[in-house]
Structure to design on (738 residues):
């Protein structure tokens, strides 16, 4: 039985790793083959094929529900109903529209929309909106968040920006919105947004600094509704009834165990409805229901049975759940607890029962966080030792009771005030702890090294006294002490990051690292913090020898402050130093300056006749083993003519497209003089500037130049000086990537 369930779950999880989905015509033979194997009692293989067929069928349904390519970038009038809680932050309203209809086209069932400067939008309202629609698309960088996978797991078929709209019908049942507004208006010691996150799963009121504190201390799971909240609340109800029964306070006419299980599950469902009953909450309720049934009737079958039943139930309901990081974290945490508690000999004292689970879960989650490219909190075990009981025993009960009893002003508001005060004490402690320990991002390593470290974590989780247990820690520590592949002398590792409509290049020699531009910052979206910093950490960069900002425009220098906060930067240069924030302490680019790192020559140039920031761009030429790269920033045709009179006007194999390939750059004279083999374009997919311009692309094609476009290839990297070809991250195929 266990073998069959493992095979079924493995088949559905295998969907995550498919480069392409099999043709629909193959699903029926796959299904028949699975049934045939089951008939011959090959349960593991038979259930694997059945699970894979079901997952592929659901994956294809989600892919088919995406916006047609012909509608990408078009503006249509659509009608639909708002679902979930809309997020209102920084003058932007973000919400999901379900059942969207248009007179001109068939649309996906669910759209994720942004309305800049829009009015308040509430759950259940019907709107008619003018929306510029886009196919699901996201930035793609090493160790980065895969936005396209997340959208597919949410079954969101398109994103869009609202241009105009009108409310057609108000919400008939907007009680969750009204409750949220009441919570946000409550006097909760200044922590009302935190209570809204804890009670309703609405984290939109938390600031970026709040999220950083939670991430640094590994406590994000405590302040947004997750499976742990559902389990804690149900456990409180179950434990209270069990305590009453133990001391004779529970009515003898009512058997305590069925009532404890039933009321615990009812409480979990009620909390889930309050939280919007989203997929993580659904997953938690399924798991909890199976555990309670096991506790009631099937304890003799062991702990792994409800775990496997819950795992398969979640995947059958939504096979795309395996694309979510939360799926792996929640099931891994539960598996670690079953493995460690189920294997212990004798009971633990209360100190061990309090401390050991946090330590063991941290060890067990380490390889999962590593392979999912999520930051690892060094202070997480310590923070959770206090935060878990503080939230579960004190803050959460008071907050939920306060939310339910808000119609009784003095009682409901009083409970919210108390819970807010308790939460405030905890947040002050977490903030202090976050100041001492920053989250750690282990670098990318070969899968074999990761597997050895994962095996080490498993060995560490074995019961005390097992002979091999001391060998686990050295394997785990491979993540810390594994020597990284070094760049050969005389070569440069070049990576063009996918930062959307902006620019960021990382150049690494054997012992030095240079960052050319730091990505864009638009409102609160800082790609320096979201993309550049995580990539540098994944590469094992400890500090920057030089941050060269071509000029002061926000799409090139916007992320510089975030980079400077995260790393020590020995020197900052810019072609427009006066236009940058004073905190960067940037020095002006000096035309003609050059230096050498490990046999690689770097040379700067700037047009002395520049009149605007684009023309002031500091151009960098890198030469390794007679192979050259030219990084041009946003220079235009006039600056290009001046550059052709400089020492940098020599044959160049790699060229960064000036000004993202705009019409005012990449003149034919300039391109012919450099005779580049490959041009690198960094731009946002479907950007409003029309980059790269069709005329410029025609010039590139006429000269036979290979075009590597970040919007099409994702991050691109190559070795300058090795005369090798470049690789784009989208070459690593996944079925959800367009």
């Amino acid at each position: 039985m266990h073998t069959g369930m493992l095979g079924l779950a493995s088949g559905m999880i295998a969907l995550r790793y498919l480069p392409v989905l099999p043709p629909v015509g193959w699903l029926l033979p796959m299904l028949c083959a699975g049934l045939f194997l089951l008939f011959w009692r090959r349960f593991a293989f038979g259930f694997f094929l059945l699970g894979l067929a079901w997952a592929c069928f659901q994956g294809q349904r989600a892919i088919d529900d995406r916006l047609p390519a012909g509608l990408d970038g078009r503006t249509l009038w659509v009608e639909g109903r708002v679902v979930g809680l809309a997020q209102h932050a920084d003058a932007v309203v973000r919400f999901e529209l379900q059942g969207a209809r248009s007179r001109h086209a068939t649309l996906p069932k669910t759209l994720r929309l942004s309305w800049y400067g829009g009015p308040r939008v509430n759950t259940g309202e019907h709107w008619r909106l003018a929306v510029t629609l886009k196919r699901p698309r996201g930035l793609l960088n090493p160790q980065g968040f895969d936005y396209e996978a997340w959208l597919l797991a949410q079954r969101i078929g398109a994103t869009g920006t609202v241009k105009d709209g009108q409310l057609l019908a108000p919400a008939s049942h907007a009680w969750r919105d009204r409750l949220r507004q009441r919570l946000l208006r409550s006097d909760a010691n200044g922590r009302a947004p935190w209570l809204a996150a804890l009670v309703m799963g609405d984290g939109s009121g938390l600031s970026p600094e709040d999220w950083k504190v939670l991430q640094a201390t590994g406590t994000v799971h405590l302040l947004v509704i997750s499976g742990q909240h559902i389990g804690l609340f149900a456990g409180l109800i179950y434990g209270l009834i069990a305590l009453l029964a133990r001391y004779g306070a529970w009515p003898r006419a009512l058997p305590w165990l069925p009532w404890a299980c039933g009321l615990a599950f009812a409480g979990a469902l009620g909390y889930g409805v309050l939280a919007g009953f989203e997929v993580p909450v659904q997953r938690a309720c399924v798991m909890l229901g199976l555990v309670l049934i096991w506790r009631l009737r099937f304890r003799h079958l062991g702990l792994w049975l409800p775990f496997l039943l819950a795992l398969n139930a979640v995947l059958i309901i939504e096979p795309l759940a395996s694309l979510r990081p939360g799926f792996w974290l929640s099931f891994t945490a539960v598996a670690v607890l079953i493995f460690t508690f189920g294997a212990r000999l004798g009971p633990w004292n209360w100190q061990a029962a309090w401390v050991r689970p946090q330590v063991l879960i941290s060890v067990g989650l380490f390889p999962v966080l590593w392979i999912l490219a999520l930051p690892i909190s060094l202070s997480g075990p310590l923070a959770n030792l206090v935060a878990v009981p503080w939230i579960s025993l004190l803050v959460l009960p008071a907050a939920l009771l306060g939310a339910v009893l808000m119609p009784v002003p003095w009682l409901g508001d009083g409970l919210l005030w108390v819970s807010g005060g308790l939460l405030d004490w905890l947040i002050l402690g977490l903030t202090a702890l976050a100041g001492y320990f920053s989250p750690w991002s282990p670098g990318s390593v070969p899968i074999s090294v990761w597997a050895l470290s994962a095996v080490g974590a498993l060995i560490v989780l074995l019961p005390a006294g097992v002979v091999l247990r001391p060998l686990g820690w050295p394997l785990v520590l491979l993540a810390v002490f594994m020597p990284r592949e070094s760049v050969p002398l005389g070569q440069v590792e070049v990576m063009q990051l996918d930062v959307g409509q902006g620019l960021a290049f990382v150049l690494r020699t054997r012992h030095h690292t240079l960052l050319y531009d730091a990505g864009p910052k638009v409102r609160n979206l800082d790609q320096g913090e979201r993309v550049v910093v995580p990539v540098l950490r994944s590469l094992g960069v400890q500090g920057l020898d030089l941050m060269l900002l071509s000029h002061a425009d926000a799409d090139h220098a916007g992320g510089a402050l975030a980079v400077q906060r995260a790393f020590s930067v020995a020197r900052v240069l810019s072609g427009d130093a006066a236009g940058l924030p004073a905190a960067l302490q940037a020095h002006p680019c000096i035309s003609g300056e050059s230096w050498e790192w490990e046999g690689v020559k770097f040379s700067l140039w700037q047009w002395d006749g520049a009149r605007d920031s684009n023309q002031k761009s500091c151009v960098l030429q890198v030469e390794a083993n007679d192979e050259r790269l030219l990084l041009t920033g946003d220079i235009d045709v006039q600056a290009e003519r001046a550059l052709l009179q400089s020492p940098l006007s020599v044959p160049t194999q790699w060229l960064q497209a000036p000004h993202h390939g705009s019409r005012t750059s990449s003149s034919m004279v300039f391109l012919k003089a450099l005779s580049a083999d490959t041009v690198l374009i960094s731009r946002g997919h479907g950007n409003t500037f029309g980059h790269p311009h069709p005329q410029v692309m025609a010039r590139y094609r006429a000269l036979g130049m290979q075009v590597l476009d970040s919007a099409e290839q994702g991050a691109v990297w190559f070795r300058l000086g090795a005369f090798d070809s470049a690789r784009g991250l989208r070459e690593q195929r996944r079925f959800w990537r367009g």
